[in-house]
Each structure stands twice: as C-alpha cells, then as structure tokens.
Amino acid sequence: MKKTVLITGAAGFIGSHLCDYFVKRNYFVIAIDNLLTGCLENLIHLQKNPNFKFFQIDVTSSFEIEQKIDYILHFASPASPIDYLKMPIETMRVGSVGTENILKIALKNNCTILVASTSEIYGDPLEHPQNENYYGNVNPIGPRGVYDEAKRFLEAITMGYHTFHGLDIRIARIFNTYGKRMRHDDGRAIPTFINQAIKQKNFTVYGDGSQTRSFCYIDDTVEGIYKLLKSNYTKPINIGNPVEHSITSLVNIIKKIIPSNSKITFKNLPENDPKVRKPDINLARKILNWEPKTSLEEGLRLTIFN
Ligand code: UDP
Fold first, then answer.
1. Which residues are catalytic?
2. Average pLDDT of span 111-136
3. Mean pLDDT calculated for residue range 260-280
4. Above 90 in pLDDT, residue 192?
5. Residue 221 — very low, low, confident or very high, per pLDDT cuts 50/70/90?
6. What is the pLDDT averaged over residues 44-64?
7. Closest Cα to atom 5, ligand 1: which residue?
8. Burial degree of 57 (CB within 10 A; 0-12, 13-18, 19+)
9. How far is the CA of 141 from the centre of ligand 1 (A)?
10. Average pLDDT of span 272-288
11. pLDDT at 20 over 90
12. Which residue, by CA, sits nearest to atom 13 of ligand 1?
C-alpha cells in the first residue's frame, strides 16, 4: 500500500528536494506551503504527477488534511538570515504555533513526524565542533534570535508531544545546506557568491572572512533526513557535512569553478554572526549509517552546471 507523506515548506529549497525524493520512491506526497519565502517554480515539474498534490496553506492558520497521513516532514519556516530579519514575527509563529498545529495533525493520524531543526540552536558556539549534547550560546533578543529561539521551541514542544503523548518524533539539526533552487536573492553566502562570480561583481565578504561554515550538498542532506525518518531515533541528531571551510576559502573555490576578475569587498560582520560552525556527526554515522559523500567543490559544480 502506498504511503502518504505530508511535507510542510514544500515549495522551499529543502522542502522541494524532499518532494522529489519521496515522489521518486513512490510515496504519495501532500505538499503544503504558504509561499512566503517558498516558490511554486520549485515544484512545477511535479504538478502533473499523480503522486503529488500541492495546497497553499499557512501552517500557523487552522487547517485540516482529510487524507490519512503516514509521515510528516515539517520544513516550513523562513530560513535565511535576511528573510527572518524581514519577517521576525512570522518566523517565531511558524516555529511555535505552526509546529504545534502540525504536531496535532501528527497525533490525530498517529504518524511519525520529523521536524527540521537547525545548527542555529547552537548559536555562536563555545564548543567546537558541535555535538548534540551541547546546549548552545544563543542571544534571544539578537537579530538571529527569532529563528534560533523558534527552532529551540520547536525542539522543546516536539519532545513534549513525544514524552507526554507518546508521539513518534524525529528531530534533524540541519547545518548549512546548498544546491539548486536556493533563491539568488536569499542573501546566503553560496548563492550570493555564485551570482557575484557569474556577473563579475566583487564578492561581499562579511567581517574578515575567517569565520567558518560546514556546507552540505542537498542530496546528502535529503538522504540523511530519509534515513533519520526511517530510524527509530527520537532525540536530536546533526545532519551536516563535517568539513569546515572559512568564508574566504569558499570564495576561492567558487573563483576556481567560475573564473572571474571579481575581487573581495569586505563588509561589516552582522551582529551575532557565528564565528565557527561544524557538526560532530558521529551520532549520525552510528545510528543512521550516514555521512555526506559530496565534497564542496563537487557539490558547487553540480549546483552551478546541472
Ligand atoms: N556571508 C558573507 N557574505 C555574504 C553572505 C554571507 O560573508 O554575502 C557570510 C555570513 O556573514 C556568514 C557566512 O557567510 O558568516 C554564512 O552565511 P549564510 O547566510 O550563508 O549562513 P548562516 O550565517 O545562516 O550560517
């Protein structure tokens, strides 16, 4: 019997890749998105597929899904710093009200729900690399607080539904992910630098560029999420690529792939911008038998040329 999966945030970057993955594996996908930061273009190729149905729904509103659901993947949220700075209240509400709404639907269907948490719950980390036992260093009233605290709330209430109602949960702490379908104007480092290289514009590096991130190619992230869903692990687990790069070295890799005369223009580092970020993925290796396979250069080539 075909299983049904409900995906929130389906028109977003990761959400739309999840739709592809599950449709391809012969699940029936119910995709919902309020299109605040998501884009229907990301799903257009699925629109005529009999295993796919899209509804424009805001998970913070009250709504019902008639069909019986087997799995839920909750990925609805603005996820780029410039987006959640522009939409602080919406970001808080989707992580809180939206998450509780979707947990109630999971409970009603007695189904497994996987929620998208984030490396941002570690804030500007004082432990490096970050493993799942680290509680984080988040400024609740800083510019990134709306996203970080909403996701911390998401983890807490999801765990509450597990311990109090016995709901079957999964919590993925997703680190920086990249690939096709990131909006060119979403402000994040990879789409911004690719765009700048293509247009022969200077690279806007914030701070001195020594801050680090660990970038995971979307196909690796999606596979990790699938393996987590299919596991029976109910505590948070890091999904990310443990290979760490400084922002300057990211620029250099992009320059190698797209030759340009672009130079670096240094700009002010945004407030509370984490200085380092690198997942400890030993737990994912052990529990999920998963680790990323795609190097940054390989993944960037796939993103740029495919
Ligand atoms: N960044 C940068 N120039 C840009 C965009 C981002 O130097 O045009 C830096 C940003 O300050 C951060 C890193 O790149 O240190 C990653 O930023 P991104 O927004 O991609 O992800 P996040 O900060 O949420 O990890």
1. 147
2. 98
3. 96
4. yes
5. very high
6. 97
7. 189
8. buried
9. 20
10. 97
11. yes
12. 189
- Whose alpha carbon is nearest atom 16 of ligand 1? 189
Nearest alpha carbon, ligand 1 atom 14: 189
Ligand 1 proximity of 206 Cβ (cutoff 6 Å): yes
Tell me the per-residue pLDDT of 231-253, one tens digit each, with 9 for 90 and over.
Answer: 999 999 999 999 999 999 999 99
> Distance, CA 232 to ligand 1 centroid (Å)?
34
Q: Round the average pLDDT of the chain to a whole number and report it.
A: 97
Gap between the Cα atoms of 124 and 294, Å rounded: 26
Distance 188 CA to ligand 1 centre (A): 5
pLDDT of residue 1: 87
pLDDT computed for residue 306 by the predictor? 85
CA distance 173 to 158: 13
**Rounded Cα–Cα distance for residues 74 and 76 (Å):** 6
C-alpha 183 – ligand 1 centre gap (Å):
14
Q: For ligand 1, pick from 77, 146, 213, 250 the residue to mutate: most ligand atoms within 8 Å of CB.
A: 213
